[in-house]
Amino acid sequence: MVSARRPLVAGNWKMNGWQRSTAELAKILTGARALAAKVDLLVCPPATLLSGFAALASGSPVAIGAQDCHVEPAGAFTGDISAEMLKDAGAEAVIVGHSERRSHHGETNGDLRAKALAAWRAGLTAIVCVGETGAEREAAQTIAVVQRQLDGSLPDGATAQRLVVAYEPVWAIGSGLTPTPTDVAEVHGFVRERLGARYGAAGQGIRILYGGSVKPSNAGELMAVANVDGALVGGASLKAEEFLGIAAAYR
Ligand code: 13P
Known about the structure:
Elements: E1 8-12, H1 22-32, E2 40-44, H2 50-57, E3 62-66, H3 83-88, E4 93-96, H4 99-105, H5 109-121, E5 125-130, H6 134-138, H7 142-153, E6 163-167, H8 181-199, H9 201-205, E7 207-211, H10 216-223, E8 230-233, H11 240-247
Parallel strand pairs: 1-2, 1-8, 2-3, 3-4, 4-5, 5-6, 6-7, 7-8
Bound molecules: 1,3-dihydroxyacetonephosphate.
1,3-dihydroxyacetonephosphate binds at residues 12, 98, 168, 173-174, 211-214, 232-236.
């Protein structure tokens, strides 16, 4: 079957980036022109840089996204940012349920489900992250963990436009380690099956990204795996050359 899914390479800058990092975004925008026919690009900077990045990227093939949102549209929630505010700042997507949010902020599948719904309410695409820890993989719990996370965190009514799933094995994040293509194929195939069972035909169009130590040197191999529709990139997304080098796997 020929896939109609357009690949997406997304950069998660995490808590990195300054006003001067706008220069790095400018380099990404320049390099993106040659790639835009084949791949969607998304940069998710910290909230302090959102509106500046969105203004610079406006009219370019690069979309700007955020890394988390609150479930309420506005109110007395000191320090939080709503999905509507992210949209207002120029974001088109928001990552929810990154393992760093799950582990450092105790976010549960139920919290993520509410955040994904908040993203949709605001007109944002929700990028929902799932993935097992090293101990869970060693205990052969990978599929069970991913199934629990998907079932608990994905709301009803997903479409290809509203939802992206990112499979990020926790042990592969920032470690330089990656699963084998066979292991990636197993999990992505399983996620595809669950999306189909849950959303029918729409589930076939939902993109499933792989994340965890993606680099230009391994992107070709990982992006070629069945049901891998792109990458969610951490460290390597901070350098335009590396980020574009990963997207070039789709050239
Ligand atoms: P690294 O690419 O730095 O391993 O991070 C992956 C990640 O957590 C992206 O969300």
